[in-house]
Amino acid sequence: MVSPPARYLVLFQYLGSRYSGVMKTSNDQSVVGVQNYLEKAAQHLNPIVPIEFHISSRTDTGVHALCNSAHIDIQRAPGKPAFNEKQLIYTLNYHLRPEPIRILNVYPVSNSFHARFSALSRTYIYRLLMGCAHHSEVPVFERDLCWAPVGGQLNVPAMRDAAQFLLGTHDFSTFRSLSSKTPLQSPVRTIFQVDIQPSSGFLFHHYEQRGLEFWELKFRSRSFLYRQVRRMVGALVAVGQGKLTPHHIKELLERKDSRALPPYAMAPPSGLFLKSVEYNEADLATTVAPGE
Description:
This protein is 17% helix and 25% strand.
């Protein structure tokens, strides 16, 4: 008798520079999605039914994830016990070795759990580098991992003032890019948190004498619109550069028109990281029998 499939929540991270985004694409493309590699690795678990990763949070080309998530269902052959978490982490990571993709953790969950719809919130961070007069001054170790806006320094107090207008529930039509799904999505979102704080770079203490400064912009919401974070970051950086005033952010929100955002107010994907997807801990309390 075939046992029912076991469902797991999988937490994973990746450097997005090499992929077309996290979502699966046709395998005949020169650059494919992170999901392609996850599912290819999962086939080494020898499931009865091919394993599909149901991704919680979509990220675009060049965007990274410190921690994204997905749920999977694994149907094993009759008589085979369910995998335990360590088996899954080891096997998947073994077959992901050539790629900058890593499984961080695995949780058995109930069959009603959904990685996308069960999420309480998502947190993104955007890394800025200040002090570079030219892109050639970006440390090689930070290539594709931050954005160094032209001009070097930014007015951080003005950016923090502007960020306050983004907090709360708004129609974010101005801050979403248009896509085929745009007309089907409500533009109303609630931003729980916006922080702008100093940060550090990779091996930063070796070149801090150059006067470079790293900053992180953090955004937390239940969900975000298409490219919303990159457009909010771009607008805040424009405030920091003096191209916009803090009050312009309020005016842009009130316009409710994606065409109202100045063309220069779109941050590149390289500095954007999905930091975490938050769940109710009670949803992750399901246990599974040890594997063989």
